[in-house]
Design a protein that fits this description.
The protein is mainly α. The protein has one domain: Amino acid/polyamine transporter I (Up-down Bundle). It is 79% helix and 0% strand. InterPro entries: Amino_acid_transport_2, Hydroxy_aa_transpt. It comes from Pseudomonas paracarnis. Keywords: Amino-acid transport, Cell inner membrane, Cell membrane, Membrane, Symport, Transmembrane, Transmembrane helix, Transport.
Length: 425
Amino acid sequence: MNDQANSVDERYATTPATLTSWSRQDTTWMLGLFGTAIGAGTLFLPINAGLGGFWPLVILALLAFPMTFFAHRGLTRFVLSGREGSDITDVVEEHFGIKAGALITLLYFFAIFPILLIYSVALTNTVSSFMEHQLHILPPPRAILAFVLILGLLAVVRCGEQVIVKAMSLMVYPFIVALLFLAVYLVPHWNGGILSTASEVPAPSALLNTLWLAIPVMVFSFNHSPIISAFAVDQKRQYGAHADERSSQILSRAHLLMVAMVLFFVFSCVLTLSPAQLAEAKAQNLSILSYLANHFDNPTIAFAAPLIAFVAIAKSFLGHYIGASEGLKGLVVKTGRRPAPKTLDRMTAAFMLVVCWIVATLNPSILGMIETLGGPIIASILFLMPMYAIRKVPAMAKYRGQASNVFVTLVGLVAISSLIYSLIP
């Protein structure tokens, strides 16, 4: 025990007594977290949340910041509680043992990998719709289009993690401006939309049922758990004993930015479109941006909306690939095989390419995948595992007794229970 304490003291011996001022690297990570979260889930959130009615949407808006900030802070703290340089799969094994580590690594992979599949479908649909409705050209066969798009994104992935994070942070700037422009552009077109349901206060049972089924989509829409492991590892390397404090600052700013931007965009969309039009967008399996492009007879919006959707989905694909590849590599290593790093990278990329391409070609329902795969499985890793660790792991004992722990646990249980409900015929 003393040896372990001494090693910790030595590790942080060179750490400054106080935090340094906010750096460019902090801003890069803040935008990287924002970029990972704001993607396909956000572009489908107005559809799913709007269909639930006015009051459920207002309640979800109020829950958005605490639900996402506390959960991601908990997962970050969990990764920070491990040895320096340990990613999430290593920390799980360190705290819970080899068997539990293998199980959580498996769950971690299956929590993130379906999101890559969702983005593959959404990206293919967005580009295909853009070519057909805005460029007025016949899209190539779906299988070819999907293959080219996914291969192009994987080419960026081959440049390495730091290049991915920097590329995503650079893509965020024009994306924020474009999303804000689009939300403001829609203001003159507000026709009440969802306000038509404001006078109809739902019965408590109906309201709870709507919120119950909507929370998994909400969880997915603001989720950036796939990049949290890499984020925490880098924070520990940069700030040592102060990593928790600085990472919380970065997370809070990232979440304030994403919640403000997304909620303004969501309300602008649902005040513009009627519930019937939102239902039509869901039936067409299109993001809200692609639907708006087809809905408005305006060349600017018709071209801008699909391009915004493309950027949003592409950057989120890159961010989630980091987590999915991390999980897959962890699974391979835990089988006892230890291929060379370059070989493992190539195997991972090939597997991702083939499976993403097949699913994008088949074109399953995106919202259906979010409801049954994305949100609820993520909830077990993002919400419940860190809270369980706070109760059981000595290294996280200092976080016990906080009200936010109860809140995060309840949200996680709600998301998982909705999955069980959705699977019942």
